[in-house]
Give the backbone structure.
Amino acid sequence: MLVSKGKIFGRQLFEHLDAGQTVVKSYAAFLLKIPRNYRGVSNITYLRGRLVLHERDVLYERDAGPERDLVIEVGGLFSIASR
């Protein structure tokens, strides 16, 4: 099923490796308590050690803004290391 879909969020779901080729990947997962009326995530940003999930489809202007963002302090977990 995943192979037939091909992409998710604009990224390939799989890649082919040549014989003897080695690829190193790393992943991170997080868990948050979500408010009952939260409408889902429109965008995720990472800035200065903070992962921010921005709410989608906010109905009223008064409900929009940083107070509805979900924030995780992650430090350098997602920093790009020089190779």
Helices lie at 2-5. Residues 2-73 form one domain. DSSP finds one helix and five strands in the chain.
